[in-house]
Amino acid sequence: MLSLPINLATKEKEAQQRLTEFSEKRDLQYPTISKSWQTNWNRVIPFFAYLEEIRKIIYTTNAIESLNNICFSLVELLHNLTKKKQMSRFHKLSQTVWH
Question: In 54-76, which positions are buried (b, 16+ CB within 10 angstroms) versus exposed (e)?
């Protein structure tokens, strides 16, 4: 059985419990994941003070920012095109994003 997602916990204590469960089950296979959560825990815990509805908006905002970064990379690549080979790379990348 998979551990419940840490970031979907409603309270800090619940998130800590989920991290502990994840660590016990998955540290041998994925040792850096729980270590990263633990290292950044002080940055993570303020997130649990927000209402669930607000947290969903934050998730959505992060997804939008990610898409904006991809679009920026495409525009930057297009701007710097100097060779036919780069045009082919741009075409492949844009196909991945838009299809």
Answer: ebeeeeeeeeeeeeeeeeeebee
Residues 6+ apart with CB under 8 A from 45: 12, 15
Intervals of the chain under pLDDT 70: 1-3, 81-87, 89, 97-99
pLDDT at 85: 60
H-state helical runs in 27-51? 31-39, 41-44
Q: Where are the domains of the chain?
A: 1-49, 50-99
Question: Is residue 15 packed enough to be buried (19+ CB in 10 Å), middle (13-18) or exposed (0-12)?
Answer: buried
Rounded Cα distance, 43 and 35, in Å: 14
Structure tokens at 38: 């633990």
**In angstroms, rounded to a whole number, what is the distance separating the alpha carbons of residues 28 and 1?**
16
